[in-house]
TrEMBL record:
Full protein name: Class I SAM-dependent methyltransferase
KW Transferase (keyword) present: yes
Provenance organism: Anabaena subtropica FACHB-260
InterPro entries linked: Methyltransf_11, SAM-dependent_MTases_sf
Entry GO MF terms: methyltransferase activity
Keywords: Methyltransferase, Transferase
Length: 265
């Protein structure tokens, strides 16, 4: 049985509260296609496909794409972006840390800011290694949070921490197994390369970022209960007015799409 996650609650506002736009995704796709020497038959798998932001350009260009995600609501958002589900797209509602595919099924496996949340990383990496074709690529990628937004988040985390400590005893923390991804793939004989696919400027007003947080669009906003959360946001809004001078203050900084590319031998 697939368990619900906070992504089910935020699927409808996921894209608008992130900083990867469709135009940037198009440029990143161009970069990836060149990186993997893609042909029209090159097949892509994205565990944790979500709303499809990362792979929508591949889908629209006709490349075979398979996506798997634990959140049906996120997959529904992807479906809404398409007039109909094309034959080159296969969507699966399931735990993305488990890959229900035969050996050597895909030319490219792409994960974006996803591996850190897998509890059994070695098992997941074993699965990626298993489903990759010979000479296939594993692209372990992430969108680097723009520094201005990261600073904004740090301020929110500081306030959350005061309330979180009071509720810590109510939760059981998920155990995450640590493993060095680079070392793992080196041990399997992969070659690696680190690249930055795209850098771009992201701008938001403090009020916009505050509204994103109030809508609980990010995982850190679920660290406290529904009862406590309004108190956190009230205190945080007061801090923002004092610290930034105005909620209309614009925060601009550079985002990056970075990729650790591993190629199978």
């Amino acid at each position: 049985m697939v368990k619900s996650t906070y992504y089910d609650n935020i699927a409808h506002l996921y894209d608008q509260t992130r900083w990867l736009t469709e135009s940037v995704a198009q440029e990143v796709a161009d970069f990836i296609l060149e990186l993997v020497d893609a042909t029209p038959e090159t097949s892509f798998l994205e565990p944790g496909i979500g709303t499809g932001l990362n792979v929508l350009p591949f889908i629209r260009r006709g490349y075979p794409v398979t996506g798997i995600d634990v959140s049906e609501a996120m997959l529904d958002q992807l479906r809404k972006k398409l007039d109909k589900i094309p034959q080159n797209l296969n969507l699966i509602h399931a735990d993305a840390s488990q890959l229900p595919f035969t050996d050597k099924s895909f030319d490219v496996v792409l994960t974006v800011h996803m591996v850190h949340g897998i509890s059994n990383k070695k098992m997941f990496l074993d699965e990626i290694h298993r489903v990759l074709k010979p000479q296939g690529f594993y692209l372990n990628a992430q969108w680097i949070t723009p520094p201005a937004r990261m600073e904004f988040e740090r301020y929110l985390r500081a306030i959350l921490a005061k309330y979180e400590a009071k509720e810590a005893s109510k939760r059981v923390n998920k155990v995450i197994e640590e493993i060095n991804v680079e070392d793992y793939f080196y041990s399997k004989g992969y070659r690696s390369k680190y690249v930055i696919a795209k850098e771009w400027t992201v701008s938001n007003t403090v009020e916009e970022l505050l509204s994103f947080s109030k809508s609980r669009a990010y995982g850190l906003c679920w660290l406290v209960s529904d009862e406590i959360f309004p108190h956190v946001m009230s205190e945080f809004e007061e801090f923002c007015v004092e610290h930034y001078g105005s909620l209309e203050t614009e925060l601009s900084s550079q985002a990056k799409f970075e990729i650790w590319a591993y190629r199978a031998s």
